[in-house]
Fold:
Amino acid sequence: MSGPPEGTEHRPRALVLRALGLGDLLTAVPALRALRRWLPDHEIVLAAPERLAPAAAATGLVDRLLPASAPGRRVPAVLPWTGPPPDLAVDLHGNGPPSHLLLQRLRPRRLLAYAHPGTPDIEGPVWRDDEHERERWCRLLTWYGVHADPDDLRIPGPATPSPAPGAVVVHPGADAGARRWPPERFAAVARRLRGDGHEVVVTAGAGEEATARRVAEEAGLAPGAVLGGAEDVPFDRLTALVAHARCVIVGDTGLAHLATALGTPSVVLFGPVAPRLWGPPPGPRHRALWHPDGDGAARPGDAHGLRPDERLLRITPEEVLRAVRALPTGSPLEAVPAPGR
Structure:
């Protein structure tokens, strides 16, 4: 997906900057779908980390991935863009001069971005801190006259068969300690669910194998119940697992957004950031657990901190089990057609 598809060399190109993680890509699906409908004849190029190429392709909304990344959530220093300037550039990365100037250096014919005092030549809408990511990027496009629906967030179901159809998927990892519920609590939940007769699968991203195996061992699961760890689970296999799962139990991380995008029931554990900013849409298929301080703060903790957030630690295994048992049953899959060109 990193090279230009055959026959697209002379199509107008739209460049979308979203050089972040899997969850960030999936929260941008409504905006990407709006762009795809608005620009049916354009080649849509997504600037994002190369490891997200399979996920970007699975959305059916991106023609090509332009590899771009930076440590943490920073803006990439450069974009390896070649050929004529983009017909359109869209900043879905953040708000501020670093991402604005990165795109402006490519001399796009038009740039869609939020307004910022540091780049006064951009006449975009006003940025709001207290806004869900899906709504934020749809509001940006709507301001420029592109209809975008933040609830249009589903991606097509996979063709790959599930390695464990009907299983409960437990994902104890997260890219920051602040959003990692303790592994012994995940193990307690997994052990109880196994006792209830559920098949339980523990998933792990690259570098998370030790945590996943600890959860599986303490829960009394077989070693084969762990998927991933030494490296990421291949995206088609991961998507198939989640799409056909009984439910997903996960912290505030990319796999939670994948469950949302596929319509799979989920229980998502929140700590430093409120679910109204990063959580699943309201409805019976998803349960967002959170115990805020009572002051109404949407970001009471550091989402990228090293230690589990105190609000996350207020969630108990018993509460998670009650939430799982309250989820609806039945297949989560619905027909979600790939958007037309």
Q: What stands out?
A: The longest strand covers residues 43-48.
